[in-house]
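Expect sequence, tokenised fold; for instance:
***
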Amino acid sequence: MPYWDKNGQPIELLQWGTEFSNWEYKLVADEEFIGNDGTVHRVTTVWLGDNFEDELRDPDCANKPGYVPRIFGTLIRPEQSELRHHTLDEAKKNHDIIVQCLKSGDLETLNKMIEDCGV
């Protein structure tokens, strides 16, 4: 299985293991707040460095032209929804959108994101 750093550059397993065990390297954003429905939500976005979910669907995906791995993940709790993202910028942007959707109660936009980026 191939691995990538936060900039999307290929790395070896040993480097991935070192970075993956470093919470400061992995963490993109982490927020806990009360949504407009009174529910306490936590949205955590991290670098994962692998494309495990994509490879489950298509074991040869990393060898296809134009393939960009989804190496970042966001977990939404208590909903237990997980989304994957291609780049650090995309992960940050989507994290902010998810938080705003939960704070405002915009479940339509949130559900569309989960449909498009969900695992």
User: Anything to note?
Assistant: Residues 3-117 form one domain. Residues 88-104 form the longest helix (17 residues). The chain has one domain: 3-117. The mean pLDDT is 90.
